Automatic annotation (TrEMBL), chains A, B, C:
<keyword id="KW-0813">Transport</keyword>
<keyword id="KW-0186">Copper</keyword>
<dbReference type="GO" id="GO:0005886">
    <property type="term" value="C:plasma membrane"/>
</dbReference>
<feature type="domain" description="Pyrroline-5-carboxylate reductase catalytic N-terminal">
    <location>
        <begin position="21"/>
        <end position="107"/>
    </location>
</feature>
<dbReference type="InterPro" id="IPR051267">
    <property type="entry name" value="STEAP_metalloreductase"/>
</dbReference>
<keyword id="KW-0812">Transmembrane</keyword>
<dbReference type="GO" id="GO:0046872">
    <property type="term" value="F:metal ion binding"/>
</dbReference>
<feature type="transmembrane region" description="Helical">
    <location>
        <begin position="292"/>
        <end position="310"/>
    </location>
</feature>
<dbReference type="GO" id="GO:0015677">
    <property type="term" value="P:copper ion import"/>
</dbReference>
<keyword id="KW-0274">FAD</keyword>
<dbReference type="InterPro" id="IPR036291">
    <property type="entry name" value="NAD(P)-bd_dom_sf"/>
</dbReference>
<keyword id="KW-0472">Membrane</keyword>
<dbReference type="InterPro" id="IPR013130">
    <property type="entry name" value="Fe3_Rdtase_TM_dom"/>
</dbReference>
<keyword id="KW-0285">Flavoprotein</keyword>
<dbReference type="GO" id="GO:0052851">
    <property type="term" value="F:ferric-chelate reductase (NADPH) activity"/>
</dbReference>
<dbReference type="Pfam" id="PF03807">
    <property type="entry name" value="F420_oxidored"/>
</dbReference>
<feature type="transmembrane region" description="Helical">
    <location>
        <begin position="347"/>
        <end position="365"/>
    </location>
</feature>
Amino acid sequence: MNKNSSNIMALAPNTSNKRETVCIFGTGDFGRALGHKMIQSGYPVVYGSRSTQISNLIPKDAEVLGHAEAAQKAAVIIIAIQRQHYNFLTKLAEVLHGKVLVDISNNVKLNQYPESNAEYLAQLLPGSKVVKGFNTVSAWALQSGTLDASRQVFICGDDVEAKQMVMNIVRGLGLTPVDKGSLLAAQEIENYPLQLFPMWKFPIFLSLGLGLFFFFYCLALDVIHTYIYENNNVSFFIAISIPNRVFPAMALTLFGLVYLPGIFAAIIQLYRGTKYRRFPDWLDKWMLCRKQLGLIALAFAALHAVFTLVTPLRTFSSWTTSTEIITQALNNQTEPLNHNKAWLNDSYLALGMLGFFVFVLLGITSLPSVSNSVNWREFRFIQSKLGYLALILCTAHTMIYGGNWFLNSQAYKWYLPDIYMLALVVPCAVLVVKFVLILPCVDKPLTQIRQGWERNPRYSE
Amino acid sequence: MNKNSSNIMALAPNTSNKRETVCIFGTGDFGRALGHKMIQSGYPVVYGSRSTQISNLIPKDAEVLGHAEAAQKAAVIIIAIQRQHYNFLTKLAEVLHGKVLVDISNNVKLNQYPESNAEYLAQLLPGSKVVKGFNTVSAWALQSGTLDASRQVFICGDDVEAKQMVMNIVRGLGLTPVDKGSLLAAQEIENYPLQLFPMWKFPIFLSLGLGLFFFFYCLALDVIHTYIYENNNVSFFIAISIPNRVFPAMALTLFGLVYLPGIFAAIIQLYRGTKYRRFPDWLDKWMLCRKQLGLIALAFAALHAVFTLVTPLRTFSSWTTSTEIITQALNNQTEPLNHNKAWLNDSYLALGMLGFFVFVLLGITSLPSVSNSVNWREFRFIQSKLGYLALILCTAHTMIYGGNWFLNSQAYKWYLPDIYMLALVVPCAVLVVKFVLILPCVDKPLTQIRQGWERNPRYSE
Amino acid sequence: MNKNSSNIMALAPNTSNKRETVCIFGTGDFGRALGHKMIQSGYPVVYGSRSTQISNLIPKDAEVLGHAEAAQKAAVIIIAIQRQHYNFLTKLAEVLHGKVLVDISNNVKLNQYPESNAEYLAQLLPGSKVVKGFNTVSAWALQSGTLDASRQVFICGDDVEAKQMVMNIVRGLGLTPVDKGSLLAAQEIENYPLQLFPMWKFPIFLSLGLGLFFFFYCLALDVIHTYIYENNNVSFFIAISIPNRVFPAMALTLFGLVYLPGIFAAIIQLYRGTKYRRFPDWLDKWMLCRKQLGLIALAFAALHAVFTLVTPLRTFSSWTTSTEIITQALNNQTEPLNHNKAWLNDSYLALGMLGFFVFVLLGITSLPSVSNSVNWREFRFIQSKLGYLALILCTAHTMIYGGNWFLNSQAYKWYLPDIYMLALVVPCAVLVVKFVLILPCVDKPLTQIRQGWERNPRYSE
């Protein structure tokens, strides 16, 4: 059922003896862990082993027999031995004929062998029904019962009946089987547990690099420049002030980079006059990690929001406020409200908050369960229309924040532009080109190309 | 596996030739896009076409043959032609006998034909096994490989084996098949991609209308009235101050509207003395969009929270503060803390934050993956108990915010009540009637009716 | 399809008569509600009843016959009668032979009978194919069409064909069938709707107890002590100030308690020298509710964040600020910025925000749909590495917040430590022991044990 009830089951083992016997070949760590869990869930377990000497590592209630005897006792045999020892199973081919063999092996690196372990096993024993499964579950998690993560067990195999039997066992252990189709999927299933956020690598390294650049840029202009020319040590800016200049710059730049590849793709298609040619590899890869880039941009935007809201609580901020007020009070004066400044200030705050709000909506719709419940038309509406709306709002927020500061020579310490100007480069470029692309005279041919039309439809011979 | 690994697969085509040949009838845009993707995923593809002249639009590695020859090469035939041309397939009935035909067609509008395209195809070719599928995937997405949205492919068909074959192909392309049952589901599957947030339309239009009304109401009382009678131009209030009066009013009113139909339903059932008669249509429709109303209310509440927290950063706010302090300083006085005001102020802030917190919890539990992991009892506990708790907290927040301001004649500019009083109307009405409904003397008969009891159980002859 | 389109379907009943007749035994509330829904979805329905007198409770379009006649009209028979009346079905054994019987019964309490109702029914009628289902759906929800919660219907049964037929009906009603395997799962399915957040009970009671303790502790030291010794009534602190001292203390302590059982487990394994012995029961239970503890800790952390950000809006806070400034102004002085204080203040704010940010990331990855899309390696990376990072950041935040206040005798009112010191106890203990555990000399044997190695591998005879 749900995680909770399954967890309870783990504590209150079902001791019904109606479950069918399962045989496990191999008494290694994973074989033992799986056996423990199966016995807890009410399955009689028999181990097939070279030595029938009973180690106390093996669950108490399990039987240990020779391979052939063990195999005869069960319809389903879990092959908990390593690929390099699969060869010896050919000797048992007769006993294993018609049996369901579950390959649970994992490799040490991606695509280690030309064919998957399960396909190799199926080649060795053509008379048996090989099913791949259980390799995505951790032995330690089975042992400790703390299956907090995914309870999904990916299953594949060519025999539908055999797959059903294994899926029933998976369900019996409180896990969720996921049918991945025929044994061809075994390679993918074997590669799965070896991955560590493959799609996140490039976006994270890019963010790190960009972040470090922005940080030192800002450190130089805000802290070091101030120290050298004004002899004022504001090193405590490193904690909040500087991060809060780096975060929005990161967020805006990365957000622009989400929409840049789409712009490139449109230009390439317009130039080539067809959509039936592959994009260059770098563009393909870039397009595939747009979601990750967007989520990292959202994370920086969220940090920027919190770091900004905390401002009034800072010692520095209250000191600034009180100094200003006391100066005015000692001069016996009250400044009138600057309406223009109030307008600008309120506008950029409002734009920022609205932009962030739409950005968060985008983030929520990228949750797997939400994006699964919308169709393509709805998804494109959100990601394209709402996405550009958020980009426009955030760019406008940054521009109004800057105001006419870019005309001021003080903004260019060491002749370098302020960080907020750097942050505007990518999003402004995206928005300008996008504006050109949606002009009817450009949009019409692009739409035609995307609907399959070709400018130079050369027919071969 | 997950999106990521599938994306990788798209880049590293599996060139194994173990996949079975797939035939595609029709060389239109979607047929070509699907063929490209299949070849990338290792399927041999043969096109059936009237003209066997090879256009370079067709993927290089595909064969192009006449319809009959092509059909003989494969067990699964994708029908990528339009419904109005299905007729010509009857001539091929003999060749197509026993084959799996995949109807991938879409219509231009909802329920365009009396029966679905797939059912029509099945009627034309009773000897073939028709499976509906692939119509919910976009050709452009298949082509560009950027399947960021739902990877679900809805499949239905009367033949289980045929469905399994198509589902295996779906998996082979890195997509997730979802079995929707027999061919009767084809109509629904064909309508699916045409929708654009059907359940959100009414709530969004209602919010727009209500929002515009509140905005102009507030503009009139806060900006225009001030300008006319105090000759004070506070037009910059449009950016933050006025939205931040409209947002909470919207949130509270919409939140009340979420619970109002439940109240109506209870009254109707009590009046009729039975639950076995349908509610009026408007009530049915209203009840079905409560979740959407609630989420929009939550969005406004979130905007209200952020717009409030940003207050101390506003130029207007710091000007007000410093003016007040300087005035006091120049008068050589410090006002003592008003304990009563501190109590009221802290209370309404705390109530608002707690109400918002419970509201966010409600929002999180309405995420598909979370609501799928709770049972009915738990779901009703959250939505009913926690929902009313949030409504009570938010209503109390607004009431204490107002305090005794409603007794002040200044609150009624142009004899109109302040916006916060308007916002209280719906939630207060809901809470009062709900309080009556949970009185034992009312609750008991209502519970009986909901358990199937009838006040006037007339037996027909 | 998705919830929305299904909801629409409910309003626009499919009147196609292609659906196969379904028979319902029993005219109780759930039987009637299910019949209504089936007729709406286009299924001809025939009721089997002792009395064929037609009550108007029964849907108009349904037929009512004696049990035997009704059963002959349909292949699928819904058994909507209570378990204690199942006996009488044995008389119909012949008519029911080969039919699909759907057991939809629920019990009043968990594990009420030794075997599940569905298994009991299968024993009584060995010639019929029993399928468990529909018991997780509420009659009231079916009736009113407002299926906002889970649309999942858990199905189990030993006959695959029979299960397919029932799953098709489930889909026909706009619900989502979930195959739970063989009839052995019936017990679990019958227990499911009776649960009310079983895994949340202990964490919630623990939080309540801890929260009350912290609240009164804080009330005594902050309000009562101040009232007695300074004769200053700050009772309004109850609304925001005291909660905002209790919330972070709760969050930090509960967060520490999430990682404490893992520490205990490691120590026990090191001491025993094996992982093949069960942990004590209390530790097992504690480990199973770590996710819930973590989410409650996150909720308190979020409340702490909001209650802190609202500070500048409080009457008390603006009074404090203006009093301080006026005092300075009247003394004709401006205090210089205390750089040390600015550093400390900014540091603890930044650490707190970063800690909260990582904590929120942890919360997002614990959403079912997100945790399902990562593999074990990724999940452990997030929960272990990121989790400890968040704990370290939050602990450091609290420590720097305290600064050297713990050296001040004023911090110990009534000789009791301040609440922030209490909050540091658990996380500091966890971090210190964890630090010892990751020292190579301790980590190496622990890793070996977790990979299956045993210190005393006693072989039994």
